[in-house]
Amino acid sequence: MADLSFATAITAAAPEQLLHIEDEAGYSGLFSDVDDLAGALIAAALSGNKIISITPGPRGQKNRDLLTFAMVAEPQRAFIDKSFSLSAQQARGAWFLPEQASLKPVTMNMPAYLQHHPMHAITAAGHDVARLHLASTPDALATWALFIALFDTLMAPITERAAGSVQSAETQQQTWNAILDAYRRLGIQIDPAISLFAYRGGWTSLDRNGQIQARVALLDRLTNHDPRQIAARFRADRIRTLAAKTVKKSRSGTPLARQVLTRSLQPTLAAYFGGDWLAFLDYLQLPPNANEEIVTALPKPKLYVGGSAKAATAAAEHGLEVEDVQAMLAAFTGQGGPVSPVERRVEVLTRWWNQFDTIHARQATGMPSLWGLVEDGLYSIGYGPGPVPRLYRKLLTPELVSEVNELWDGITLPRWPETIVSEPYPHKLMAETLGPALTFWHGVALTAWYVCEGPSSRTPLTGLGSYHERDLTALADAKTPIHPSLFDELAQAERYLGPPEDLESYTHELPLPDGHIGIRVTGGGQRRAGFEILRDIITRHRRGWTRRYLAEYLYYRWNHELTTAARELHRFLAAKGKAPTFRQFARFATPAANHWFNGDLTALYTAVGEKAPAVTRRVDLLPIDAHDFVDAVYARLGGQRYDELLRITDFPAANRFRQQSRLAAASVYFLQIAEALGRIPEAAEFGANRFEWEWAGGLDKGWPIYQHTIEQILTKTHD
Question: Superkingdom of the source (predicted)?
Fold first, then answer.
């Protein structure tokens, strides 16, 4: 049995006592760097300095913000870089750390806002949000692990009052007792400037100017305390909580890290021990559990997706018939043949891309727009211009359309991963699989068309680079970049386009009862001759990109998504010491499963070389094409085709049709849930509160109508 005497003493100690225990144990220098850093940032913040800077990421890029400290000296900079590198902490076994996070460090710059912009400080602080990769800067990990919690504690009286609690008197009293007790543990004296904020302390009697002055006075009181002592006491309090959980789990010896490190305690280990569980046990003077396994590096993912290309080589190496090797590969992948699901989709995507290129290359003035060739959204019924539904059916070969329908007609929903449900829009899922290359090249071609053929374009030719910044960044990350000369040539070619010509316009005049004209609704637009000039430039660049990069790009798409799923699986194993459940696996694996395996998580497990914990089943309730099903639901709900003018002439009718249109579009999602559950979903399972039900007199009346409508269509189409 481990000696828990030292750990128990830490658990029972108040912060100042714990610091004394550390000194006696010879730990006085163990935390000097982190306490110096935290104390320096507290002092800088209370002096009115902004201590963090948040730089937004590229437009449309998720988790690409950049967070950096604005007030650190060079020695502290070296300490941060050494201790708060995500990769370094992972190498110490901290695989529990999130790799992406949405941080809300709203209290870190709050003292600066309160001193320099007191009237709007709370609003300004609320804008300090960063969505980022924790590997982007060590400062981001330090903020996540330590400084948000530290400054949230210091600014708690201000933020609690700003939130305006409506809780019961008893709950409010408990909240303020906790806030003031946290101050006491930090060694902060509760004087009138602080107790003013507390429950029934006099805050509600202050006018706005009085509240501003009270906030500044609170900051003044905090500056009267030693910031390094505040930092050290805060650290001691956090370590004590982690030690208490460890002692509690030590009934039969030192516990394993995963038995102790709940989500709330993980930041403490990262903040003060560099993510090193063994260093923390050494601090507690406890031996590691004999079964503790610290993973310092994840295994390199091995993907099993290229069987058919290797069958002949493997057969020759082992003296086997090619057909026998292919049969073994088919059995391993669970497919009907030796071609893997990934290989088959890559082959279809390559043929699809070639037809896509040919269609765009022959597009000419006088032809219909190609908006709708790529299905990039859910089908909905409404007014105004939009893509031509299912245009790809007219322009692609029937064989290719059929293959896309077959290969992308199933998906996994993360909430119900044991069932493969219908994908109502296979061509949309196929487009998502192709990703930013398709978004970019199709978007550029459509912009050229609408600049020339009108009535208007979503961006001018000179703005294409900015408009597609997200796609361009993604393509650069894949090492398949778009050559910048494309944008230069298109900008220069604009001078050769014809002058703007007005398109045929229309005007609807709505008379008032007195005979005067009340409202005019006018439409029109402009066009410019010369589309073929732009088309040929884009075609030349697109074909150059295709020759150089398409095969490499498709390899990157599947390899990146499968490798990401495999790495997350290994990271889960390293952090938890056990395999994820099917639902846990689905949280990070569904994109790869849906894009490359028709929603089959079991097949994805096989592709990454792991055994699936369950077998998926396929359910398909969608009886007809999704577009036809949506149309049928809309008609049965009472919806009619309408145009923008109806919103002016009869807004209640237009609003009713809009509500019914949204519900009709969601009917395919209703079916997906029914497939996953094996029954008709309840209103809460469907998320009925996200929709409007005024057309039926409210949700209680509308939900049965909606359910019955879908069931009627299912019954009729299955008969």
Answer: Bacteria
